[in-house]
Design goal:
By secondary structure, this protein is mainly α. Helix content is 60%, strand content 0%.
Length: 241
């Protein structure tokens, strides 16, 4: 894809959503870290439902450790893999206390050394909390980047590297949010919403969804219109006589 096309794509995404952000509910770096860690293999809606109950009770590393694994489980039971995530959450909280004074570290290696935290989670924290130009590639972004031709790659890391290298600097800070939202609501996995997509003409996807033909009018109103046409035709025929 030409650099000018990539710039045009991000320009349109920015115009449509000038201040994008995550849909995960949070009020602190620690809450965001917890929410992102819990979001693996589940939806933001499920995570938000869980954290609405959890955070009023425990939203600091010390409070999570005090709850313990069995105490955390009831709050996140609706989240996928909750048994493993409960252990990781308590381990993460304890590691923050032991290694970082209870604070979320601003270093990738330190973040990825925490239980349950991988590259994607670390990238989100570095981007949102510390302002780094990072792009966390999830399934939505992987799909959008490959389908549109914006940053093709065989693996999430290849897509990440291509996005970091090819995204104009003025758009890089918010690129993650624009692409994930576009993939979640427009460029969906099955039957992407190409007819209403704001970057349709810039996208290189060869199998774009076509607009549906107008539905045939049915029901009482359609019958009235058909009858009206018949009456008008009959009147016109009488006049010709």
């Amino acid at each position: 894809m030409h650099a000018a096309t990539r710039r045009a794509i991000f320009r349109r995404l920015r115009e449509a959503n000038p201040t994008p952000t995550t849909e995960l509910l949070h009020t602190s770096p620690f809450e965001l870290l917890v929410a992102v860690m819990l979001s693996a293999h589940t939806t933001d809606r499920s995570v938000n439902a869980a954290t609405r109950a959890l955070f009023p009770v425990a939203n600091t590393p010390a409070a999570i450790v005090a709850l313990g694994v069995e105490g955390v489980k009831p709050y996140i039971r609706a989240v996928g893999l909750y048994n493993t995530k409960s252990k990781n959450l308590v381990g993460l909280a304890q590691a923050l206390i032991d290694r970082h004074g209870g604070e979320v570290p601003a270093d990738r290696d330190a973040l990825e050394a925490l239980p349950g935290v991988g590259r994607k989670t670390a990238s989100i924290i570095l981007n949102m909390v510390f302002g780094h130009n990072e792009v966390a590639v999830d399934t939505h972004i992987f799909r959008v980047a490959n389908r549109t031709g914006l940053a093709p790659g065989r693996t999430p890391r290849e897509v990440e590297d291509a996005l970091i290298a090819g995204t104009p600097s003025e758009f890089l800070k918010d690129a993650h949010h624009w692409l994930i939202l576009h993939g979640r609501y427009v460029c969906i996995a099955r039957t992407p919403k190409c007819p209403t997509c704001i970057i349709r003409d810039l996208c290189e996807y060869r199998h774009k969804t076509q607009a549906s033909p107008p539905a045939k009018r049915t029901g009482v109103s359609a019958a009235i219109r058909r009858n009206g046409r018949r009456v008008r035709r009959a009147a016109a025929a009488r006049r010709r006589r």
